[in-house]
Amino acid sequence: MSEIPFSLDQLRILKAIAEEGSFKKAADSLFVSQPAISLQIQNLEKQLSVPLFDRGGRKAQLTEAGSLLLAYGEKIITLCQETCRALEDLQNLQGGTLIVGASQTTGTYLLPRMIGLFHQKYPYVSVQLQVHSTRRTSWAVANGQVDLAIIGGEVPSELQDVLQIIPYAEDELALILPPNHPLAEKETISKEDLYNLQYITLDSQSTIRKVIDQILTRCQINTNELKVGMELNSIEAIKNAVQSGLGAAFVSVTAIEKELKMGILRRVHIQDVEIKRILSVIVNSNRYRSKAAEAFIKEILPQFASEQFLPELEKLSKNNKQFLDKQVEIKDN
Amino acid sequence: MSEIPFSLDQLRILKAIAEEGSFKKAADSLFVSQPAISLQIQNLEKQLSVPLFDRGGRKAQLTEAGSLLLAYGEKIITLCQETCRALEDLQNLQGGTLIVGASQTTGTYLLPRMIGLFHQKYPYVSVQLQVHSTRRTSWAVANGQVDLAIIGGEVPSELQDVLQIIPYAEDELALILPPNHPLAEKETISKEDLYNLQYITLDSQSTIRKVIDQILTRCQINTNELKVGMELNSIEAIKNAVQSGLGAAFVSVTAIEKELKMGILRRVHIQDVEIKRILSVIVNSNRYRSKAAEAFIKEILPQFASEQFLPELEKLSKNNKQFLDKQVEIKDN
DNA sequence: TAGATATATAATTAATTCTTATCTAAAGTC
DNA sequence: GACTTTAGATAAGAATTAATTATATATCTA
Fold first, then answer.
1. CB-based contact (8 Å) between B157 and chain A?
2. Domain ranges of chain B
3. Considering only CA atoms, which residue is closest to the C1' of nucleotide C18?
4. A93: alpha, beta or left, given left = phi > 0 and alpha = psi -120 to 50?
5. Which class would CATH give B89-169+278-332?
6. Does A79 sit within 8 Å of B327, measured CB to CB?
7. Distance of CA B315 to the CA centre of its chain
8. Helix or strand or coil: residue B168?
9. Which of B79, B214, B267, B332 makes an SS bond possible with B174, Cβ 3.0 to 4.6 Å?
10. A12 inside 8 A of chain B by CB
């Protein structure tokens, strides 16, 4: 299927001859011997079955076919050089795309800040954020549709050995109430008070819901007896609902900074209970990470990590699928 | 200066892998062994210092750099194929340009008919006609600016061994008069009558003028005593001037066909004198002739040639600068 | 016609790029 | 979970390709 009857080198030689005016000078400009040029052009003429130069005179003259090939050849060479530049830009973070995945909470409150920082540093890299369920996000990383993701739940078991999962930060979940709620007066409420509240939650399949159930259960709270009044599918919607007095909710503290400051939501602590979950970074361990992903991991993630997890993170940024190592080996030869 | 760190073959391999989904299948589709593919891609990755595929899974996955290179590679390959097609079209007379030179008379009356025929046969070849003096036309052929030319005069001596000059046809020059001229009544006039006419001619440097002088001198006519009333620089202008009664003129019979038929000009013969010149085809013997020039020589020229010159013309069409001969030699091996 | 310059040719050597054979690792099978 | 299948990597040798040096030929210049 469609052999190409010339090589890039031959086109470069053709161009050099046209520019320099003779085989000899072209040979000098390309730092090869003159017969090398002669042979390459002869081969080219043989392969194309058409003469490209009229020799003999003091300078080699292009035939019509030669001019035609030269014109196309210059276009081709230019395109090749453009290709090189695009690849270099990609390596220098002057281009390319970084795709980051996240689940609801992190995608809404944490990642936009990270991406903002990254964008400031590397304005020519276009960044995409994909907010989906933990499950879908994990698969996206596994399939390579997403470079890395930050999630707050468990990675599906079938992906646990494909993905590298690095505990990254703690996310504290707060119980929020409307300011005018009777219990909102208190700093801390008892576990029993929990049974007297109406809850607004994400749907029962969501990771954050499962995490909360898990932790409360561990604190001897029967989650089945907590009254769920409403299930919404966005954290912003839940906050608004709570603010409007429709009930209470568990949300990440990162999601309510502004509202607490403005006094439109109240946070109450629960006696002897701390609801924390671990956020994790996930990457595909079988996949080479782009320069952009590398930079994001090395330069942005640490700024938001809990100190205790920093060493792990550092290890990650050194473990890109073996390639650069090999490069060094080869260069030594 | 600007080495290109990949080859067309490598791009074709990259494309094949992307299309077939695996190194193995790409190898099969390109009819080479699998290691050949592996090695080429490894070299490519080394040269670009960036991995192009994530291996290991059931199918090879492109990295971001791989996709980028693939996208450019496809453009490059397409352009190469376009180049091939353009070259083929040139060979098949489905494209390209033929540039024909001529001097005044042939350029005005003979070549337009030839070019018309050629264009009917090869509508995709664009034909240019350049009408200049014999001298300038000869140089244009020598320099390769013109593929071939038909001239009616002598080729400058310094070009006689660069150019191939093939006598091609006879051009008869006629003496024309306005219909109402006293001598226009006669079929034939005497040499002496010539001295009683006023002549309208091209400028004294023109070839046709020199040819006429030469022939008349040979017939014992003293050209210095012929009265030149007007020098014009176009044959059409001369015809109009004669028609208007401003004098007599010598012009090619091919230039007055229409006017004689319409009776607006009269031709008179001269006792015992025939003014004929030989038209010649000139080509550059050191130069490879394009397929289009070849076709023009082989298929168009014979239709207008004097029979006596046909053998020479045939020889010419077999003598393109040795190239196809070589091809055959090589194919035998 | 001699000298300089440009391209072609030939023989040799160097480099590259295949191929075959073998090996490793992952994925699907029973 | 051992077994087969499949994809890709690796190594060694063969084949091809492309370079080099040396030399020949032809053209332009003086």
1. no
2. 8-86, 89-169+278-332, 171-277
3. B36
4. left
5. alpha beta
6. no
7. 18
8. strand
9. B267
10. yes
Distance CA A217, CA B299 (A): 98
Closest-CA residue of chain A to B46: A327
Contacts of A65 in chain B (CB under 8 A): 87, 90-91, 290
* B87 vs A: CB within 8 A: yes
Query: Residues near chain C (nucleic strand), Cβ < 7 A?
Result: A 22-25, 34-35, 38-39, 41-42, 55, 58-60; B 7, 9, 31-36, 39-40, 43, 56-58
Shortest-distance nucleotide from B33 CA to C1': C19
A126-131/A198-201 β-pairing: unpaired
Which amino acid, one-letter code, is at B27?
A
Fold of A171-277: D-Maltodextrin-Binding Protein; domain 2 (3.40.190)
pLDDT in tens, A96-151: 889 999 988 899 999 999 999 999 999 999 999 999 988 889 988 987 889 999 99
Average pLDDT, chain A: 89
B303 close contact with A: CB closer than 8 A: no
Nearest nucleotide (C1') to the CA of residue A22? C6
Q: Which of A226-230, A311-315, B84-88, B236-240 has the lowest mean pLDDT?
A: A311-315
Distance from CA of A257 to the nearest CA of B (A): 37
Helix axes A8-20, A34-48, angle to 10 degrees: 120
Going by the DSSP 8-state scheme, the letter that residue A298 receives in this structure is I
User: Residue B206: exposed, middle, or buried by beta-carbon count in 10 A (0-12, 13-18, 19+)?
Assistant: buried
- Is A63 within 8 Å of B97 (Cβ atoms)? no
Amino acid at B195: Y
DSSP lists the bridge partners of residue A200 as A230
CA angle, residues B279, B283, B287, in degrees to nearest 5: 180
CA–C1' distance B1–D30 (Å)?
37
Question: Do the domains at A8-86 and A89-169+278-332 have one common CATH topology?
Answer: no
Percent of chain B with pLDDT over 70: 95
- CB within 8 Å of B112: residues ≥ 6 apart: B129
Kind of pairing, strands A276-284 and A163-177? antiparallel
SS3 call for A30 = coil
Contacts of A61 in chain B (CB under 8 A): 144, 287
Q: What is the DSSP letter of B299?
A: I
> In chain A, whose CA is at the least distance from the CA of B61?
A144
pTM beyond 0.85: the answer is no
Could you tell me the sign of the dihedral formed by the alpha carbons of B107, B112, B118, B123, in that order?
A: positive
Provide the Cα torsion B246, B251, B255, B261; round to 10°.
60
Which CATH number is B8-86 given? 1.10.10.10
A261: how many CB neighbours lie within 10 A of its CB?
A: 9
Best mutation target among B25, B55, B83 (most A Cβ atoms within 10 Å) is: B83
Residue A125 token pair: 């890299």
Kind and range of the H or E run holding B199: strand B198-201
